[in-house]
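hey all, quick one before standup. I had two proteins in the batch that finished overnight and I want to keep them in one place so we stop losing track of which output belongs to which input. First protein below, input sequence then structure tokens straight from the run.
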Amino acid sequence: MSEETKSLNFIEHIIEEDLANGLSKDKLRFRFPPEPNGYLHIGHTKAIGISFGLGEKYSAPVNLRFDDTNPAKEEQEYVDAIKQDIAWLGYQWENELYSSDYFDTLYEWAIKMIKDGKAYVDSQSSEAMAEQKGTPTQPGTNSPFRDRSVEENLDLFQRMKSGEFEAGTHVLRAKIDMEDPNMLMRDPIMYRILYAHHHRTGDEWCIYPMYDWTHGESDYIEQVSHSLCSLEFKPHRKLYNWFRDHVYEYNKNKLPLPPKQREFARLNLSYTIMSKRKLLRLVEEGIVSGWDDPRMPTISGLRRRGYTPNSIRQFIEKVGVAKRENIIDVSLLEFCIREDLNKTANRVMAVLNPVKVVITNYPENKEEWLEAENNQEDASAGYRKVPFSREIYIEKEDFKEEAGNKFFRLTLGGEVRLKNAYIIKANDIVKATNGDITEIHCTYDTDTAKKVKGTLHWVSIKHAIKAEIRAYDRLFMHEAPDSDKDKDFMEFLNPNSLKVTTGYLEPSLSNAKAGERFQFQRIGYFVVDKDSSKETLVFNKTVGLRDSWAKQRPKPQNNNQNKPKQPQQKRSAISIVQQLGKKYTNYPEEKQAKAKAEIQELAKDISYNELEPLFSTAVKKAGTRIAVMISLKQLLKNGLERNEAIDEFINKALEDKNELLVKEASEI
């Protein structure tokens, strides 16, 4: 096996299976379909990476399509920002498309749906429709307007389009089934009246298609082969297919490929808000300076903070493609940018909390330009010159009058090495009236071969340039700031998420340009902000050299010596079922019956989300597949709705060579 060979994720398995079943490779087409109602954030990078990554893997086109069906919330600013972000990440789209391109076609298809008795105009209030919708456990009831004639529906719908009615007086609904267990199938709205200026179509339309009607049909018009979306759209798949199948009948000669929707787990990040609505609130209430504030999880915010496209792509690759929701620790993202900048960022010296050092035995008017390596990780980075003089700055925390054996920096009577320069020894200090140290008097030694334990960064006071330093930290103190239903996520804001100070930098940075990234030695990684000018340099802190948050997490206390031994944590039902499944085919008949009864009982405590990932269990693991089938049967008996994934699992089992598995599948 070559080093480049990697196991396929479940989406790639689906595509490979479709290709094996006759789908021509040149028919593969993907899309990334953002709604232009906000800026893209780190959560979107997973969807971007999946779709564009598949395009690269299979040499297939990827469309960038803006699902612009709600002019009340959409703006050209968001369209432009989204395009900039995707291009910055290094992806290229085949076509730039808009759902609004298809408004005429969607309207014509809606007319056909009305003529076929599959859609009707409802004239109830939104409150009345919501009341009739029912609940997940109670069926809905039909609208009193559901049986309007085709002629009346056509007349009303065309008059809706002509602007004869006020917003909210009529909607067009699909006629499906008000008793369907999936509430999205209970006569969903296809069109609503909305008098709002559209960023592309202007005031041409006053009725706008709903997302569920527009999204799948746009996929179909573009002949997208695999419509990939996040897990919250899984319940929508049944409606996606219903709409798709009807328009397919109208157009199958011209548009032969019906798209297939498949879902993946979205990216959730600790200490981070992913809701565009909540991010907009942060902007509107002035908590942050804008969508590109470096504390924001937006791609533009990450870019301004100093993140690189490569670091984000590496992060997405490490996260992987999964079927189940989970929360990724933000420290993984920070690790990826550290790893990338460690290889690419030049090292420089900057002092952010200075104290003055006077080297008393160094001539007052002398200065030297010493050679410093730019990046020890990159041999091609070369060297630069840094000035040295009698008076320098070091960090205040790098000096203590007295310190223990584990303090390897400067102390009275102690010696340290100055990076790229000499060894100095602290002999005396000068204090202000309040006791603060204002000067440290040292002597230097030209014998740089001498062994000392500490090395400090520094800058020559005479040559230092001032810069505004913006030290950013996590915007929220809580690991899941929007998880508490009883509290507003704003209550978890970190009051210290931004600290602005003045730093003193080596002169090589005087011509640094916006977007350039550096490692401030012994401090962290920084980027030149767009607010910089010739008069004032502004640096944003990207990330520290180490994860400072890890130290803040409470460590488990070892107070168990005198405590009674705690009972072992109870194993989950799904893990016991898996264990029973591993041995199932080796059991004698009597023990199989006992194991089956146990699995049926355990299934009462298993959710579908726990069971579904086991549908892809290898064929050779027949016992596990049997245990999953027994559990599935119990879930279906208890009211679980059958879906495409379940049908696919059962059908594969019916074709299996194992008779026990076939028997269990045939009983469903």
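OK second protein, same deal, sequence then tokens:
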Amino acid sequence: MPARLPAVPQPATIAPALGARHDTTALLRGATASSYADTVREVADDVAARLSAVTQPFSGAAPSELRALVDAVDLDGPASGTRQALREAGDLYAQHAIWFHEPTYAAHLNCPVALPAVGAETMLAAINTSVDTYDQSTVATFMERRLIEWTAGRIGFAVDGPGTQGGADGVFTSGGTQSNFQALFLAREQARTAGVALESMRILATGVSHFSIAKSALLLGLPDGAVVAVGTDAEGRLSPDSLAQALVDVERAGDTVIAVVATAGTTDRGCIDPLGPVADLCDAVGVWLHLDAAYGCGLLVSPTRRHLLDGIERARSVTVDFHKAFFQPVSSSALVVRERADLAPVAWHADYLNPRANAEPNQVDKSLQTTRRFDALKLWVTLRALGADGIGAMVDAVCDLAAAVHHDLATDRDFRVVGTTDLSTVLFRYEPDGLDPEHANALVPQVRRVLFDSGRALVAKTVVDGRPCLKLTLLNPDATLADIRGVLELVRSAAHGLLAGEALTGIDEPPCRAVHPRLARAEGDAR
């Protein structure tokens, strides 16, 4: 028999030492379910009380005050417990947040949110699903895909169902900027596959297209000047004649148009480009047409204005922002493509996540994100609760309100309306007879600042055709014409006050100085 190897002594097995005992009540689990319910209830009660008490969209606190409040919190200090921490957050954050549900908030593309969606937020936050792979999401994957199919159907794309080669597809994203970026990435990849060099790629878009178009070109490695400006008409809509000329000019320069970007709801004016004529030109030369409908997508469910999107079904890709026009909490956006195969360049496989051999329906295969919230749940619940027609009626309400405000301003001697809108935007200036345009220009940012600092009303400012303008973005279907008239009166009062202040500063000696005992007399005044 062969000699046996000598036994080698083995070290005794010692279990690793456990760290300090943690707080076993800190995490949401079965044992803390009742604490979870109490916590959510307390937060909901606090927010509800604040909602009931709010009388203006902002507290009016100065940036220096808010910074001081934030800096006063010791983030390395001792633990205060869940209840106290949430109370502190309410007094810090909720007390000084911008309340988009207030009818005097009319600044940006922020909407009040649907109650069913807020309920869904509670559910998805607690369960914390990540909709990247099927083994993390299960039914959520199918629910998101069903909503993409529903949206595609509303657009007018053919929907053949999951698992087929043809038909529309898409994915939820964090917002319109990401949706636009992904669409242009897909267009770039199609052009690269066809042998087009990066340095010769061009994107055609108007100067009023969303800034994310130019930013996407930069991030995609396209050269400076890759976004070629297409002319617009007097209302800021893309001019088909200008587009036709731009297509010819790019080709003559030896470059290649990889995408044309049209807009259904420009940020400043809320105007919709002529989708049919633009699609005709794109089809004629075989160019990818991307439609940024982040603002105007609500018309997909409008009972009276859906026709304004006629031609949307001819786009190759469409951006929709449910957190703008469908009254969803941020974030809830999607990119929808007409052909499922167009999403293929996004796919990236990793053995630990989504190996190629995996037959499960993984959403990460068509998303730029990996970990991703189940934001589709909010829209799902809202559709089931209110119905598409119910959402569409709210879209119509804000568009009708904007039309009524336009009519009001057109008959007001102090204000000048700037342009028109297809949606719910109102551009105007305080410019009564006798006030020169340059003076009116200077008042725009001053009026906006006075209103913001007071917290009583929030309006936006922008520049259109070189003219500064005040802007109302009306996305609150519960706001009334009387509410917006109140905002306009605040604008008028602020402008009057600013002009009166300018008049007083131009007087060497205020008229009351000689009679008011508390005002110091001017030096050398013998009276």
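Flagging for whoever picks this up: Confidence is low (pLDDT under 50) at residues 511-527. Residues 376-410 form the longest helix (35 residues).
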